[in-house]
Design goal:
This protein is an alpha+beta fold. Helix content is 23%, strand content 31%. The relative contact order is 0.19.
């Protein structure tokens, strides 16, 4: 959540909403850009994180590139374009998905779905950590 709030501040956005909820879904998995569904559907229980802003929004051409490494809409020297690419990679590593909808002049919404664990992860014993570090 910290990355999202930091991004909002860096963009000078005055209004943003961050919502976290649990959902049970059966949906088609797409490429993350609203309206596409190339993969077969899957049913599972997720944590859903929704981040919405009231900024300038993005056109379809921009939406199709936002997860590409080094893509940026900022002038040279003002951004590496790695932020959303890294977020996308982390979410995929966690077996989640991210979906984006945007409208010019209205704003953008990111919906992040992360699978819930069947049971809490067990923290390793300090002795196990010490053994692994040798």
């Amino acid at each position: 959540m910290r990355w999202a709030l930091g991004w909002f501040r860096s963009q000078g956005l005055r209004r943003a909403t961050l919502t976290v909820s649990g959902v049970s879904l059966s949906r088609a998995l797409g490429d993350g850009v609203s309206g596409d569904s190339a993969k077969p559907s899957k049913t599972w229980v997720d944590a859903k994180i929704t981040v919405t802003d009231t900024g300038s929004g993005m056109d379809r051409a921009t939406l199709e590139k936002i997860f590409n490494p080094f893509f940026t809409t900022k002038p040279v020297g003002e951004g590496s374009g790695l932020g959303l690419s890294m977020v996308h990679g982390i979410i995929e590593d966690l077996e989640g998905t991210i979906e984006v909808t945007s409208a010019l002049g209205v704003g953008t919404t990111f919906e992040i779905y992360l699978p819930l664990a069947a049971q809490p992860a067990k923290a390793p014993h300090p002795a196990e950590l010490a053994e692994k570090s040798r």
